[in-house]
Amino acid sequence: MTGKAPARHLLAWLGELFPGEPQIMQEIDASIAENHKRIDKAYAELLEGYRGIPKDILKVTLEVDAGSHHGLVRTTDVPFSSFCAHHFLPFFGTVDLTYRPGRYILGLGKIPRLIHCRSRRFQLQELLVRELAEDMVNHGDATYVRVVSRARHMCICYRGPNDASTVNETTYQIGEPE
User: Fold this and answer.
1) 92 torsion bin: left (phi>0), alpha (psi -120 to 50), beta (else)
2) Is the separation of the CB atoms in 156 and 87 below 8 Å?
3) What mean pLDDT do residues 62-88 have?
4) pTM given for the model
5) For residue 23, how many C-alpha atoms fall within 13 Å in the half-sphere facing its CB?
């Protein structure tokens, strides 16, 4: 879809939400009439994680003897934003990722890039932490991974419970820390 197609699809969908209310549709149509390119560009950026390939992001920085690194590597407070796959509304927060290297030590900048790749999609917070952990094991050869995500969901803040103070925390772990 390019050009006016996304805006047209959006208008058609909104027309189904507000049948028989032409004044609402006229107001919506006028507000986005000149913005179709901006809408395309915004959603291409907001969903750019689909273009990323976790295996490529986690290319080896340093190869070491398996089991020779006895400490943990921890990256904390990495900001992310995503779209809830249930409601198509944004959610955002931070991720902490801890891993024990197996045969590879990964460059520290790869962790935020991996989080960006996995979060800039239609996503569920529970699956985000699992996918990050699995990527670290499958593509980064980590022997232990723990991922913690804290996020605010617009589907909780602006509908349903209408509570902007709620923070949801999800965790996923593979292996044992020692």
Assistant:
1) beta
2) no
3) 92
4) 0.88
5) 0
